């Protein structure tokens, strides 16, 4: 068990995902888990007013002791608040930034409503955009649709041109679902070459519908990605990335794996030992334990009556964060990739194990396969970093090794031992 004090001792910094328009969105992506949250607020405006905005910004800045403070605007769709709302937000940030901390605004959007005017604002205020794209058109349009059921790819590509023209910094968020998971390199090459993404997040879709009472097994939506398929998807992309793109393209899960390998925190809550430092703020000031746990039982307070620091260090929130470790299955505790995986996100721990209290992560088989596969490469990159060299040297190292192997291969007779070190004859191994 991790004790409460361990967690409280490292209470700062923290993040808040702000949802100024609540669960309202202009699109209707098939797999969205957030749209139904509006049912929690029947007859409400679902718009953050200036009072809540100001209280939040004042409180958030004053409770952060870091040199840099990151605001994360999210949704629903945050552009639906209109530009004036964010102009006010930036004014409040200036007003309450008494210690001259660096303020960064990140903005997760489907890009649909971005115009020249928005772009000028984003650029002049250094906003970092996160744009949701699931791959080339045939894959993107499969589930990311508007309210009439039409694909959204063409419109988003037009908006991306505006973003590029104004040289706004942007990342790409790709939801890995049951369809695009079958085409890893098509997705990766599209993002890298056509979208010119240099920072990519792959977010696996796991939507539990219910637990089947008969089989005691988790029922998931048709968009949900299978664990092994997700692992294969990551491996294919990793192999391409590690041979060509390290240092040029940043893929969040690869970065976090390298951080864990080096003995640092993963930097992504899903792969950290404990979590609970990323609360979610709804339009009316209600705060929840996490964006994935906006439910009545995970409500921790309202910013009109409770400070963010108090909510963060409350017993409820501390226990929530500690549960990531304390409810880990025996299988995870004995797993040899535990230090990189830590059982993944509790939201996806939906697979019951016979006679056990705690459930296994739905993506377990994929995580295991992926984290095992990348070990030799992590070792090489880790060595480079330890010796104050760049991890991107791995691209050259692998190319040299491959050309050496090819040179050896051409000299080998069919009965010579195979170059791979298997101990078998070349003709029975790689020469077969
Ligand atoms: S519940 Fe999952 S998404 Fe939420 S903070 Fe914990 S690991 Fe992160
Ligand atoms: S790979 Fe599976 S068993 Fe290992 S830590 Fe991750 S979820 Fe647990």
Q: How is this structure best summarized?
A:
With 432 residues, the protein is an alpha/beta fold. The protein has 16 helices and 14 strands.
Largest sheet: 10 strands, mixed
Broad structural category: alpha/beta
Strand order of the largest sheet: 9-6-5-4-3-2-1-10-11-12
Task: Output the helix-strand order.
Answer: HEHEHEHEHHEHEEEHEHEEEHHHHEEHHH
Low-confidence stretches are 3-11
The portion of residues forming beta strands comes to: 5-15%
Can you give the mean pLDDT?
92
Number of strands: 14
Bound chemical compounds? iron/sulfur cluster
Q: Roughly how many Å is the radius of gyration?
A: 23 Å
Task: State the distance separating the first and last CA atoms.
Answer: 52 Å
Shape: globular
Number of helices: 16
Q: Percent range for helical residues? A: 25-40%
């Amino acid at each position: 068990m991790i004790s409460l004090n361990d967690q409280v001792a490292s209470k700062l910094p923290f993040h808040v995902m702000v949802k100024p328009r609540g669960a309202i969105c202009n699109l209707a992506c098939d797999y969205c888990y957030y749209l139904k949250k509006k049912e929690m607020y029947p007859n409400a405006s679902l718009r953050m007013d200036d009072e809540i905005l100001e209280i939040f910004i004042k409180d958030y800045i004053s409770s952060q002791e870091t040199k840099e403070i990151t605001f994360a605007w999210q949704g629903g769709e945050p552009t639906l608040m209109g530009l004036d709302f964010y102009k006010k937000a930036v004014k409040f940030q200036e007003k309450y930034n008494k210690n001259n901390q660096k303020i960064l605004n990140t903005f997760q959007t489907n890009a649909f409503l971005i115009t020249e005017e928005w772009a000028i604002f984003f650029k002049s205020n250094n906003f970092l955009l996160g744009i949701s794209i699931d791959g080339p058109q045939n894959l993107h349009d499969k589930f990311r649709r508007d309210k009439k059921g039409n694909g959204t790819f063409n419109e988003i590509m037009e908006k991306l041109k505006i973003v590029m023209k104004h040289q706004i910094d942007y990342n790409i968020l790709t939801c890995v679902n049951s369809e695009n998971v079958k085409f890893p390199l098509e997705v990766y090459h599209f993002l890298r070459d056509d979208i010119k993404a240099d920072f990519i997040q792959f977010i696996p879709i796991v939507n539990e519908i219910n637990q089947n009472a008969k089989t005691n097994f988790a029922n998931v939506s048709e968009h949900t990605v299978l664990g092994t398929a997700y692992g294969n998807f990551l491996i294919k992309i990793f192999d391409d990335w590690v041979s060509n793109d390290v240092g040029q393209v940043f893929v969040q899960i690869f970065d976090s794996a390298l951080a864990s390998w080096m003995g640092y925190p993963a930097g992504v809550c899903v792969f950290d030992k404990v979590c609970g430092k990323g609360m979610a703020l709804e339009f009316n000031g209600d705060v929840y334990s996490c964006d994935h746990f906006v439910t009545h039982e995970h409500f921790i307070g309202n910013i009109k009556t409770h400070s963010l620091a108090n909510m963060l260090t409350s017993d409820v929130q501390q226990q929530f964060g500690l549960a990531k470790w304390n409810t880990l299955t025996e299988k995870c505790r004995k797993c040899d990739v535990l230090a990189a995986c830590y059982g993944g996100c509790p939201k996806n721990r939906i697979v019951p194990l016979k006679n056990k209290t705690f459930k296994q992560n739905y993506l377990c088989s994929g995580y295991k396969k992926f984290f095992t596969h990348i070990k030799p490469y992590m070792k090489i990159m880790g060595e480079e970093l330890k010796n104050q060299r760049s991890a991107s040297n791995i691209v050259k190292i692998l190319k040299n090794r491959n050309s050496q192997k090819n040179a050896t291969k051409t000299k080998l007779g069919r009965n010579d031992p195979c170059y791979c070190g298997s101990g078998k004859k070349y003709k029975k191994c790689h020469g077969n």
